[in-house]
Every structure is written in C-alpha cells, then in structure tokens.
C-alpha cells in the first residue's frame, strides 16, 4: 500500500518534469491526455471500485467545457470565471446524482441498465449540442475561446492541468480510503448484504457517480481554454467510449491507471495516425491484448514492480480505540405478522401468516421444506413485498419498506449461505458491520469511524479467536469460519432483533456446538431477540423454548417445545432431522 502510494507520487512528479525534458508541443499534447486521464479516474471510481460502468462520461466533460468556455468568452473578470468553473463542476455532478439515484433506487446491481442509460444521455447531449446553435455554436462548435488568464496553451496551462490532476488524484485517493470508498468496494461485491446492514447503496452509488461527473466537468472546463474550441464531439459517444477503453487499458481499479492508459494510447494514436493507415485496428488490438493478458490493466505491471521495492513504512496491526458503545439492543422487540400474504405469480407462498414475538431470547421457526420460513424473513426484511396483511415492528409498519430502511430500524439478518465481502479483509468486514446503521453521510468522508469499536467486538474476538487475524481476506476463510464471521457481523450491527437463517448450515458438529454457544452468549449479554430458522431439532431444543411451526405458508403451531412435540398436526406434517 505504502509503496503503491509512493509510485503514484513518483508518477505525478515525473509528469511535472515533462515540459523540461521535451518541447512545448509535447506538453500541449500531454496536457490533453491528462484531461482525458482525469475523466478516466472518475470512471475508475465507478467501474473499478463500485462495479457499475458509466458509458457516457463525455456528456459531463462536454458540459464542463461548454459552460467554462462560455464564461471565458464573456471576459468579465475573475468572479465570473470562478462562478463558471464552479458551474462546470457542479452542473455535471447534479445531473449525474439525479440520474444515478433514479436508476440505482430501482434495482440492485443496475449494471447494463445503468450503462445503457448513460449511453443514451450522451447521445442526447450530442444532439442538443448540435442543434442549440445560439448557445453551443452548433455543428461548428463554440469557437474563439480565449486562454485562461495568465497562461499560454503550449506551456503554462500544462502546469494548471497538472495541478488539477494532483487535486483530483488526492481527492479520489482520500475518498477511496474513507469509509465511503470502503462501502463502495463492498457494494461491488455484495450489494444486497450491505443493504441488510442498513446502507442506502443507491445513495452511495449516486454520490460516486456525481463525484466522477464533477471530475469530468473540471477536466472539460480546462479543455475549453486548452483547445480554444468546443465541438459536439466533446459530448459524444465516441469520446466516452474511447475514455472507457483507455481506462481499461491503464487499469480501472487503480488511481493512476486511467491516466497512464490515456497517455500511452493518446501518444500512440498521434504517432500512428499519419504514418499507418490501419492505426485504429492496431489500437483495438492493443486493447484486446491488454484486457485479456492483464485484466488489472497496465498499471498492475507498474504496481508489480513497486511490490518488489522494499516496503516504505508498512503499518502494523491496527489498534482499535474503544470509542463508542452504540448499543441499540435494549431487549424491547415487538414483532407482529397480521394476516400476511405473499403471492408470486400462481404461487401462494405465505397464506394469512399471523404471529407475535415480544419476549427477548431465542425463538425458532421450523417447518418442512418449502413451508415459507425464508419467505417470512424475506417479507420482514424488504427482500419481497407482502401482497397483503401487515408487519409491525416496535409500533411501526415495516412490510414493504426497502432493505436498508428496515435494517436501520434495528432488524439484522444473516442469510442462510454465508454472505461476506470476500475480497475485503476480515477487519474491513467487521468495520462495515459496525458502521452500518451508525454512519452519517458526513462521517463516511472522515477517517474516525476506522477507530470505532464496542465491547461487543472484543466479545466476538473472544468467541471466535480467528477473527483477530484481521488482515486476511474474508474469501480465504473456511465455510464454517465465514458462517461465524457473518454471524459476528450480524451481531455487530447491535440490532435488537437478529434474524438467523440456518446459522449452523454446513458446519461440522463441533462448529455447530461453537455456534450454539455463541448465539446463546450474545443473546444473553446484549438482551437482544433472535429468531432462527432451523431444521436441526437438537439445535432448536438447545437454543429456544419458543417454537413456531410453519406449513404451506401459514402458522401450524406455536408454543413451547414440549407442546410442539405432542401436537398431532405437527407430527403429521413435520419430520425434523438432526446432525
Ligand atoms: N421469489 C420466489 N418466486 C417464486 N417462488 C418462490 C420464491 N421464493 C420462494 N418461493 C417458493 O415459495 C415456497 C416457500 O419457499 P421458502 O424458501 O420460504 O421455504 P422454506 O420454508 O424456507 O424452505 P427451506 O426449508 O427448504 O429453505 C417454495 O415453494 C419456494 O419455491
């Protein structure tokens, strides 16, 4: 990490020295490629980190260019210029935020759907730029844009562009390190899990998209005085696609990769354009080879070299300060299902399901396969909307709300299959659980949450000692350990209600014993309420004395284990197994 940062700094210093080593035309060309590289850095934030690909970044680049070009042409003094620059940055950010939020709120992932919308928008932008002659100069473009005061296009402007690149790189590096960037990375790996932790992932992704658009707007603003002309091509799809290609070639997941990609392909194109008729084919081949041979882009080669250098100031294990105990588990849980129905197509999954849970401790839901147990959790946690009926939690209706809203009300869920963030470290997985439900938007951009802790975390280390080796990726843990990490993360949300879907699934009998002890201990120390779905009667017997039996989407029986055992209706439909 430290050496990767050092390489980034060396790269930037190298770029600063270019005008001293080559002629001013090289500085002019390089300045243009750095602007495209900055746009690529914004794409990297969205695509490389958060996993969604914007295909129309030239729209924001072009808007920035037209707006600032317009301000420059007014020649009305520094105030207008500053206002123009702000507008060139903020207008794209606003457009991106609104579009992004509307798209992301509709569905999880949003991959191709989002990309196609951004593609359509950039095509629309191109049409508007072409047709609005009175504002943009139409097909011929906005011409006669004067130089930025105090600069000349071939040399001094290069330093302004370089400074903007340093600023953008610094901001993106910080944003990536802060909780915001960590949550973005987690979104790319397991968005639904993050929502069950109480994170509004649509908002998170829309902010990332807005940041990338602001960066493109700034680059576009500097493009206007650099070129002296802005044409509709600056808003178009072709430029958008080219920058995506450069980003992929350089390395979408790295900070400097997109800049490297823009420089290399930019110079290659300008050298080949006049000397080789099929230069575009050659560039396409380079793209294909790099993407296949080096999926991390060319920057991964640079980082590979950096890793061979002695590590500068590598950090030791992170110390956690005991800063806050945000315990929300006060034992007060009042959950009521009233005639809840869930009908999907021709299938009636829940059929007037009604029950109440208002005592702390462990409650079990059992029932034959397909009885509707997981579906009951799904309607309670926002994965599915109930077709009819009412779900009330602590006096508020929660049925039909979105996942993160329900989670923020204090309902945490552990899915049946362990659901962690595999590429993130164990420490980071635990951080995300701790932050969930507690982080405000502004705290996402500060580093303090990295020091948050709670006595519950120390208890988790005590119960599951393997968690203390926090630097290993969660994906390298065994299935049993991932179940335990997932359970620990669910508990660390400090929600009063814990929903545990088959927490012992896939565990050996000794691991099952450990998990049972853990559930008992956490429920006892936090005073929380747990509802577990379980097939193993031995687990049910050890953990809870209140059992709900579901069959065909309805409640068949409800009571103490002894009553359930002697219930003839249960005996007729239910045959539980044991490990
Ligand atoms: N999204 C869905 N679309 C269509 N049918 C569904 C959907 N989700 C669940 N079902 C159906 O609803 C029924 C109940 O499923 P559910 O997963 O809730 O049962 P379960 O009691 O948890 O079963 P198991 O113990 O096997 O996990 C099953 O017949 C299942 O196929």
TrEMBL record:
Subcellular location per the Swiss-Prot or TrEMBL entry: Cell membrane
One Gene Ontology term, aspect cellular component: plasma membrane
Main location: membrane
Pfam families: ABC_tran, BPD_transp_2
Domain (ABC transporter): residue spans on this chain: 335-577
Protein name, entry field: ATP-binding cassette domain-containing protein
Source organism (scientific name): Flavimaribacter sediminis
Keyword Transmembrane in record: yes
Membrane topology: Multi-pass membrane protein
GO molecular function terms listed in the Swiss-Prot or TrEMBL record: ATP binding; ATP hydrolysis activity; branched-chain amino acid transmembrane transporter activity
Keyword list, A-Z: ATP-binding, Cell membrane, Membrane, Nucleotide-binding, Transmembrane, Transmembrane helix, Transport
Keyword Membrane in annotation: yes
SUPFAM superfamilies: P-loop containing nucleoside triphosphate hydrolases (SSF52540)
Segments passing through the bilayer: 6-39, 51-72, 78-105, 112-129, 157-181, 202-223, 243-269, 281-302
InterPro entries, per the entry: ABC_AA/LPS_Transport (IPR051120), ABC_transp_permease (IPR001851), ABC_transporter-like_ATP-bd (IPR003439), LivM-like (IPR043428), P-loop_NTPase (IPR027417)
Lineage, uppermost ranks: Bacteria, Pseudomonadati, Pseudomonadota, Alphaproteobacteria, Hyphomicrobiales
């Amino acid at each position: 990490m430290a050496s990767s940062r050092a390489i980034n700094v060396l790269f930037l210093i190298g770029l600063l020295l270019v005008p001293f080593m080559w002629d001013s035309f090289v500085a002019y060309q390089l300045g243009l490629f750095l602007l495209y590289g900055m746009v690529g850095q914004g794409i990297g934030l969205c695509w490389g980190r958060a996993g969604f690909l914007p295909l129309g970044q030239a729209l924001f680049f072009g808007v920035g260019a037209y707006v600032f070009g317009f301000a420059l042409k007014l020649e009305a003094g520094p105030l207008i210029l500053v206002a123009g620059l702000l507008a060139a940055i903020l207008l794209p950010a606003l457009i991106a935020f609104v579009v992004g939020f509307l798209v992301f709120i509709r569905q999880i992932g949003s991959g191709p759907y989002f990309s196609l919308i951004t593609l359509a928008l950039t095509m629309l932008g191109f049409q508007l730029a072409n047709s609005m002659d009175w504002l943009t100069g139409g097909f011929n473009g906005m011409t006669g844009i004067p130089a930025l005061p105090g600069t000349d296009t071939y040399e001094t402007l290069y330093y302004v562009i370089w400074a903007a690149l340093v600023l953008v790189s610094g901001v993106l590096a910080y944003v990536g390190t802060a909780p915001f960037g960590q949550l973005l990375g987690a979104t790319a790996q397991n968005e639904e899990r993050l929502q069950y932790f109480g994170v509004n992932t649509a908002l998170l992704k829309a902010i990332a998209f807005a940041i990338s658009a602001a960066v493109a707007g700034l680059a576009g603003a500097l493009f206007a005085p650099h070129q002296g002309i802005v044409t509709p091509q600056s808003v178009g799809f072709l430029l958008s696609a080219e920058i995506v290609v450069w980003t992929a070639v350089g390395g979408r997941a790295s900070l400097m990769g997109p800049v490297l990609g823009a420089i290399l392909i930019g110079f290659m194109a300008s050298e080949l354009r006049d000397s080789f008729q099929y230069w575009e084919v050659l560039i396409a081949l380079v793209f294909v080879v790099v993407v296949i041979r080096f999926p991390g882009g060319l920057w991964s080669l640079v980082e590979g070299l950096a890793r061979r250098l002695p590590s500068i100031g590598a950090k030791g294990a992170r110390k956690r300060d005991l800063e806050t105990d945000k315990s929300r588990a006060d034992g007060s849980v009042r959950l009521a299902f009233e005639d809840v129905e869930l009908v999907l197509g021709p299938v009636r999954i829940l059929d007037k399901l009604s029950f109440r849970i208002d005592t702390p401790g462990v409650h079990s839901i059992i029932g034959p396969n397909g009885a509707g147990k997981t579906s009951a959790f799904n309607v309670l946690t926002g994965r599915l909307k109930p077709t009819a009926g009412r779900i009330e939690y602590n006096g508020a209706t929660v049925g039909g709300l979105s996942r993160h809203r329900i989670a923020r009300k204090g309902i945490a869920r552990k899915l049946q299959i362990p659901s962690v963030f595999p590429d993130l470290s164990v420490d980071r997985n635990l951080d995300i659980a701790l932050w969930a439900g507690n982080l405000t938007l502004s705290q996402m951009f500060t580093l303090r949450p990295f020091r948050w802790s709670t006595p519950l975390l120390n208890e988790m280390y005590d119960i599951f000692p393997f968690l203390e080796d926090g630097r290993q990726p969660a994906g390298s843990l065994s299935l049993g350990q991932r179940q335990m990490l997932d359970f620990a993360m669910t508990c660390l949300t400090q929600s009063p209600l814990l929903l545990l879907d088959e927490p012992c699934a896939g565990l050996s009998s000794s691991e099952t014993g450990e998990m049972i002890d853990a559930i008992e201990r956490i429920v006892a120390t936090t005073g929380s309420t747990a509802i577990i779905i379980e097939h193993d009667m031995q687990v049910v017997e050890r953990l809870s004395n209140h059992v709900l039996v579901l069959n065909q989407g309805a409640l068949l029986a409800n009571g103490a284990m002894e009553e359930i055992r002697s219930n003839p209706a249960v005996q007729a439909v239910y045959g539980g197994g044991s490990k």
